[in-house]
Each structure stands twice: as structure tokens, then as C-alpha cells.
Design brief:
This protein has 357 residues and is α+β, with helices and mostly antiparallel strands. 46% of the residues lie in helices and 15% in strands. It folds into two domains: 6-176, Orthogonal Bundle (Arc Repressor Mutant, subunit A); 192-352, BsuBI/PstI restriction endonuclease, C-terminal domain (Trna Endonuclease, Chain: A, domain 1, 3-Layer(aba) Sandwich), CATH 3.40.1350.80. The N and C termini lie far apart (68 Å).
Length: 357
């Protein structure tokens, strides 16, 4: 029986759980997770059949994997059953079997990896619908109780390739990752596309190109998805791109507001205006850094004052790809009080950092 290799299992896991889709991608799609998928497939640990202990994954080795790859279907089924039964009895029994096979046992992971595998990988897979556990057995019990869900295991069929594989993964993601997870999957695809081109539709109906990249994808989300909900009558005064300052602006709106924006102005990534409230929104898209910290907030307020805009008419927003993204984890503590946070993968909510009076 042909199995994907451990490395191929890892590649497929990264396709199922692409970066940014889950809170801890290493737990569900890292090297230890890839070893777990291979071990479960080797033992036939699926849908309650041939349940495993986490330690049994750690005991898998290259010699056994190579032997399996070289075996015909009948021999493979016979030998994996022997491996499984020996591993159930314990490490000593497994070593005895491997000695019979002439395999020097160099297990993939040390026994102290048991808790990370169980508490991080298995439990997260359990939450995401990728794994099942016998409910009659405590999750910390040494008794075997873990198996892959059948639909998740089917994603690792070697014959799945190309468009058929992509569609099978998409169907599983839609069924199991939940609303936020599905949004993150879609956004990850958009991020890849954003490496080539990003276009934003402004509130006045015009469409403008933006510089390719994550920052532009975030700005597109702010303008097209957040502004219509957060602002009563939104308008885009200016969008500032790193390569060309004042890259996009609404000239008519600028004239109506009596504003003159110079190329040398230290503008935020986007300056929005709400005609209903008369409030200006200073927006920074923090794809890697660039959050509105205290010094940046004061700098923007000085620009506003120089242009006749009162501080009470100013609001500030730092937008990130996701709460799980590295940029937010690194920069969140620097974001200024009295400002707002928004996340592209959770577009229906805004966080305000506000002191209690």
C-alpha cells in the first residue's frame, strides 16, 4: 500500500492549514504534526479503528517507513499490524520486532515530545474536526484512544493531485474551519494574489490600483468593508503608498474640505472622512509594523492642527491582517490608547483602546 512520506504529509498539512489560518500553525502543520499524520496512516488509525497513544507516533522511524514503502500490499498490511500490536504492548516489544526485521531503531522524536503532541497537536486537531478521541478515555490516559477523522485522513491519499486535491481540501476547510477559519483561508489566497495586483473601489465608485502587498490588501479591506459600516457617509481623502505619496485621492472631496495635501506630508496610509459625523479617520495598515503609537498619534494631530482640523474631530485606526498574525503579536503593546484596532479576517468588529474614567 502506497503512503505519502512524512515530508509529503507536511506539505499537504500546510495546504490544509496555510499560514494565518489557525492560531498555532506549527502545532497543526509542523514537523511533529506531519509525523503524526504519517504514523496514523501507517497504523490505519482512522475513525476509531486502531487507536493510538501519542508515544506510538514518537516511536516511528525511517527504517520502518522505508520498509513500508518497499512492501507490496499484502506484506504491508501484515507488517503494519505486527508493528501496531507490538507498539501497543510497549517500547520493549517494539524494539524486539524491529530487531527481528534488522532495523536499527532511531525513533523520530524523543519520549518527552509526548505532551506537546497530545496537548498541542492532537487537541487542536480534535477541536478542528481532524481527529477523534474515545470519550470514555481521559485525554491524559496512556490508553490508546486517538484516531484521525475519515474525511481528514482522505486528504492524504497519494492519488489526490492538482485540482482534485485543491477542491477536496477546500471542501474540508469549508466544513471544519468555521467562519473565521474559512475567511482566513480566503484571505490567504487573496494575499498570494496581492503579490501581483490590488485594486480598491472607493466610496465615490472609482477604482484605483494599489501597490502589491499585504498593506494594500489591508487598506482595501478598510475602505471597502469597514468604512461603509463604521462611517455614516465615508469618503477617502487620500491614500499614501510607500512608493508614491498621495497615491490615491479624491480631488473633489479635497476641494470641498478646503484641504491641500503636499507630497512631503507625513500622512497615514489612508485618511478617511465621515461626512455624517465630520470626523477624520487616520488609518495605518500594519502588515509588519507601522502601528499608531503615541508618538505617531501626536504627529498626526499636529498635521491635523496645521490644516485646521480640531483634535476632537480626529480618530485613529491601526489595521492588521489578523489577531493571530505575527505583526499584531509583536506590535499590539505599542498601539496608542484612545485609538482603534481592526482585523481583516474579523471585519465586523472594531476594538477601542480606552481608559476607564
Amino acid at each position: 500500500m502506497k503512503l505519502l512520506t512524512r515530508e509529503q504529509c507536511g506539505e499537504r498539512l500546510r495546504a490544509v492549514f496555510p499560514s494565518g489560518v489557525v492560531d498555532d500553525p506549527r502545532a497543526v502543520a509542523g514537523p511533529l504534526a506531519a509525523a503524526a499524520v504519517y504514523g496514523c496512516l501507517y497504523c490505519g488509525a482512522m475513525e476509531g479503528h486502531n487507536p493510538l497513544r501519542p508515544s506510538m507516533i514518537l516511536w516511528m522511524c525511517d527504517g520502518v517507513a522505508a520498509r513500508a514503502a518497499a512492501s507490496g500490499p499484502e506484506r504491508f498490511h501484515e507488517e503494519r499490524e505486527r508493528w501496531y500490536r507490538a507498539a501497543l504492548r510497549g517500547h520493549r516489544a517494539l524494539l524486539s520486532l524491529l530487531d527481528e526485521w534488522g532495523i536499527e531503531h532511531r525513533q523520530w522524536y524523543a519520549d518527552n515530545s509526548r505532551e506537546p503532541l497530545r496537548d498541542e497537536t492532537f487537541r487542536e486537531w480534535l477541536r478542528l474536526g481532524a481527529m477523534a478521541h474515545d470519550s470514555s478515555i481521559p485525554t491524559t490516559s496512556p490508553r490508546p484512544g486517538w484516531t484521525l477523522r475519515g474525511d481528514f485522513a482522505s486528504l492524504f491519499r497519494p492519488q489526490l493531485e492538482g485540482e482534485e486535491l485543491d477542491e477536496t481540501i477546500r471542501v474540508w476547510q469549508t466544513a471544519n474551519l468555521g467562519t473565521v477559519g474559512r475567511v482566513r483561508v480566503r484571505l490567504e489566497a487573496e494575499r498570494r494574489a496581492a503579490g501581483h495586483a490590488v485594486e480598491v473601489r472607493l466610496p465615490n465608485g472609482s477604482v484605483r490600483p494599489l501597490t502589491p502587498g499585504d498593506s494594500s490588501l489591508i487598506l482595501k479591506g478598510v475602505i471597502e468593508r469597514l468604512a461603509p459600516k463604521l462611517l455614516g457617509a465615508p469618503g477617502v481623502v487620500a491614500i499614501s503608498q510607500s512608493k508614491r505619496k498621495v497615491d490615491v485621492s479624491d480631488d473633489e472631496l479635497l476641494r470641498d474640505l478646503g484641504l491641500r495635501i503636499e507630497v512631503a506630508d507625513l500622512l497615514p496610509d489612508a485618511l478617511l472622512f465621515d461626512a455624517d459625523s465630520g470626523r477624520f479617520w487616520f488609518v495605518e495598515a500594519a502588515a509588519s509594523d507601522g502601528e499608531i503609537h503615541e508618538a505617531r498619534r501626536e504627529e498626526l494631530l499636529r498635521w491635523a492642527e496645521a490644516h485646521g482640523i480640531e483634535a476632537t474631530s480626529c480618530a485613529f485606526l491601526t489595521a492588521f491582517l489578523s489577531r493571530t498574525h505575527e505583526a499584531f503579536r509583536r506590535r499590539a503593546a505599542r498601539v496608542a490608547w484612545g485609538t482603534h484596532l481592526w482585523f481583516l479576517d474579523e471585519p465586523d468588529g472594531v476594538v477601542r483602546l480606552e481608559w476607564l474614567s
